[in-house]
Structures are given as structure tokens and as C-alpha cells.
Amino acid sequence: MNEFVTESYYFPFLSLAKMVKKDEFLKQNEHQESNNKQVSRSDFPPDFIFGVATSAYQIEGACKEGGRGASIWDAFSHTEGKIIDKSNGDVAVDHYHRYKEDIDLIAKLGFDGYRFSISWSRIFPDGLGTKVNEEGITFYNNIIDALLEKGITPYITLYHWDLPLHLHDKMGGWVNKEIVKYFAIYADTCFSCFGDRVKKWITINEPLQTAVNGYDTGIFAPGRRQHSSTEPYLAAHHQILAHATAFSIYQSKYKDKQGGKVGLVVDCEWAEANSDKIEDLSAAARRLDFQLGWYLHPIYYGEYPEVMRKRLGDRLPEFTQEEKELLKHAVDFVGLNQYTSRFIAHATSPEEGDYYKSQEMERIVEWEGGEIIGEKAASEWLYVVPWGIRKVLNYISKTYNNPPIFVTENDNDTSPLHEMLDDKLRVRYFKEYLAAVSRAIKDGADVRGYFAWSLLDNFEWAQGYTKRFGLVYVDYKNGLARHPKSSAYWFLRLIERPVKIRMAKKSN
Ligand code: PNW
């Protein structure tokens, strides 16, 4: 059957976005955003959460303290040639020892929520789940208690890329189905130890990045490229099952007592068709299925998107009937990490990497006329495209039955040296992206909160310390001193609410 026919069920939605020509389209979107630059708290629902996010390996350091076992990122960052500035997370920004100071900062900046991740190998040093490391439990108890004392709601991610090394070395990590069992023990332990106070759980952060960068391009830990036509799909499959298993443990053992919610964080660049040609429209639709559908389709519809099944054939694992039952609606909310967007064109021999080749598309930042999709940030991949976030939010809402959504990460990194503290481009980015989020809410998307990435400058994975995503500058040369940037003060003004409300929240 003609591929465009089988994929055509997307067209009504996509074509809404494409009723105008490219340049008119860009102008129209620019215009919309500039009308809405003065974003304020009143543009959001009263109980909307403004938060800030981090992850364990990127900030904690203390890699050999407190009984912590090694993770795949320790091994990867210590491997020659993997990190651009030859750095690692051994010390990172020393949050392990400075968590009190950092939580004070979050409170002073006025945030309602803090999203952070637990280092799995601090809880189970070899990942096997036989013996809990009490020092690890104490460390996270201290963080949770310090947050609650300041009236800040904790949002915990169980897995933000730092798999216990032993699980990788001994059994292949995410490509072995056994991992699901170990993740379940770990999740169960966290729910049991922290769930009396923590009511928002995220199982896994961006399973797509682990699958593609960990097992296809190899630019992230564990750096596999050997079987890139199969391993990414296995790694994704087992992450989906691990998520659903943890979700079901929460439902059966904890939900009644603790009353919390469990979600999954996906990441997505908006895919805007590069032209009205059917090939490009179809490529853009495919691109969204290969990003969001890969993870959300199984949960909402019990199987992978049709276009993935057709293109990948038996390289794509299948869910058993029992697993399909387990997957059914196994999320309370969708977390979305959204940074940037691309124009998508059909292409028969695209970029390297099996995952990209299978999509037969090209990600374009510049049109033939020289017009760029958005201003470029410091990171190579990051272009500022506020209208993209609105489109992703609306797409999720329409495609997956209007679920509650939290924007769990959003940011661009600060670039010119003189803007390190006075990060003007960043402030503009936040203003425009938040205005676009508020428009998505008005469009009907059920967005409940927004977390800026990140509280602090930190270890930016393969980019080491060369990229700065913090609202708070960290002086790497002077004892890791913290200095809030203009963007941090901008958030403080945006979020500020009467003291009475914060105090009331605290006593809840
Ligand atoms: C996030 N994209 O990953 C991660 O969750 C953070 O740990 C990281 O520090 C942050 O981005 C900044 O890089 C992303 O393709 C992965 O648009 C992919 C994309 C964006 C962010």
C-alpha cells in the first residue's frame, strides 16, 4: 500500500499548521509571540506550578562517598575521548555537600516545585536490589525534608541516565529484559521510603535519548554503536516496560495510602513540515511518531505507532498480551522536555544513525532563502523557537486524549561571555516560551506546571562543563560559588505570590 495513504491519518491536524506559506508562517508566528511578550503569573491557572529542575549525575558529585556505587556515566566520562573538555561528574557542582545552600536558593527564587533525580547507585550500589544503602536513603530524606520545610514540592525522577554500572557490565543494562525486574525493586524501594512525603514521581527521563544516544550514535553512556539497528529498540522497549511495571507497583501497593501520581518524561523537537508537499508532511508526521509515539503510543494504544512497525519490522520488539494490559493507560501525567524545533523534509539518505535513517527525513534549520528557524543558542542543536512548544503541547493533547502535562524541562544555554550573568537572550527565551505555553493552555492543553532547566550550571553530559544551562551561575574557578543570573531574578518577579499563599501551601 502507498505509504502516504497509510500515514495520512495525521494530515488533518498537521495541515492546520501548514495553511500558510513558509515565510508567512514564520512571520505570523513571530508576530503572535511578540504580542505576548509580557507574560505574567495571571496568564496561568492559579494552581499552576513553577519549578526548576536538575539531575543527580549532573550536580551531585561525591561519586565515591556515602556508599554510592559507580554508574555508567562514571565509566563513560572517564573514557578517553567521550567528554569534550575531558571532565567528569566526580565533583560536579558538589550539590551532595551543598544541598542546603541550593535549596535555600530555590526558596529565595520563589519556585513552587523542584524536580531532581535519585542516583540509583546511591540506593543500590550494584543495582541488584539485595541491600539498601542507608546513607543514600538518608541523603534523599534530607533533601525532601529541607524542601518541604521551605514549602517547595518535590518532583522526583527515578532514572535520569545514571544506570548502576554493574547492571550494564554483568547483563547488558537496558538491552536485557531482566533490567525491568531490577528497576521495579528500585522504584518500589523509593516509593516505600519517600512516598509518605513525595507525591509526584517520574519513572524515566527521556527514554529516547538513552535508546538513541546510548545504543545507536553512542555519544552518551553506555556508548554502544555495535548493534545500532536493534539495540536502541530493545533499550526503549525495556524502558517502557520498566516504567509500566513501576506504575503498576505504585497503583497496587501505594496509591491508596499515599495518593501520589506517577508519570513519564518524554522529549520532543517540534517537527514542522518543510513544505506542503505530501512527502514532507508525511516525514514530519513520522518524525513525531518516532519521538513521542515510540513511548506514548504503547501506553495509550497498546502498541508502537504503525509507521514504526512497518519500517522497522522485526527489529521492533512486540508486547505480549499481558504486557499490553500492563501498559494500558499507565501514566497519571506526561512530562515533556522541550527545547527546540526543526523543519522536516523527506530524505532518502539522511544523517548517520539507524534511528535517523529509518525515518527517511532530514532536520533542517535554514530554508533555501536563508531564513533560520530561530535564534541560535550556545549549544549546537538549540534554536529558539517558542511557537514549537505550543505545537508540541497541542499535539500531545490531541493525539493522546488530553492528558495532564508538565513541562519538565525547558531552557536555552547562556552564550556570550559578557552575558554569563546578565543572560538577556535567556530571559527573552523564557518569556517567549512561557507565553507560548500559556497560549497552549488557552488552546485547551491541560498543562499543570513548568520547570526551567536548570537550577545550576552543571555537567552537561558529553559537553562537560562547556555549556551553561543554569539560572544560577557556578564559578568553577572560585570554589563553585553560586551567583543567580538575570534569568533567576526574572523568574522571581514572575512567580512572586503573596507570602500568605506560600505559607498555606507549606502547611498542606
Ligand atoms: C535534556 N533535544 O536532554 C536532559 O534531560 C538534561 O539532562 C540536559 O542537561 C538538557 O537536556 C540540556 O541538554 C535533551 O533533542 C535531549 O531537543 C534532547 C533534546 C533536548 C534536551
Question: What's a concise summary of this model?
Answer:
The protein is α/β, with parallel strands linked by helices and 508 residues long.
CATH class type: Alpha Beta
Major beta-sheet overview:
8 strands, parallel, barrel
Rounded mean pLDDT is: 91
Bound molecules: 4-nitrophenyl beta-D-glucopyranoside
What's the count of strands? 15
Beta-strand portion reads 5-15%
Name its key features.
single chain, 508 residues, alpha/beta, TIM Barrel, eight-stranded parallel beta barrel, three-stranded mixed beta sheet, 15 strands, globular, disordered N terminus, binds 4-nitrophenyl beta-D-glucopyranoside
Protein model, in words:
The protein has one domain (5-495): TIM Barrel (Alpha-Beta Barrel). An 8-stranded parallel β-barrel has the order 1-2-3-4-5-7-12-13, surrounded by 6 helices. The chain has 20 helices and 15 strands. The N and C termini lie far apart (58 Å). With 508 residues, the chain is α/β, with parallel strands linked by helices. A hairpin with a 6-residue loop joins strand 10 (375-376) and strand 11. It has helices at 3-6, 11-17, 22-34, 56-59, 72-77, 95-108, 120-123, 134-149, 165-171, 179-194, 207-215, 231-258, 278-301, 306-312, 321-327, 354-359, 386-399, 424-443, 486-495, 499-507, and strands at 49-53, 113-117, 153-159, 200-205, 261-267, 270-273, 333-337, 341-346, 361-364, 375-376, 383-384, 405-409, 447-453, 472-475, 481-484. 4-nitrophenyl beta-D-glucopyranoside binds at residues 55, 58, 205-206, 209, 267, 269, 337, 339-340, 409, 453, 460, 469.
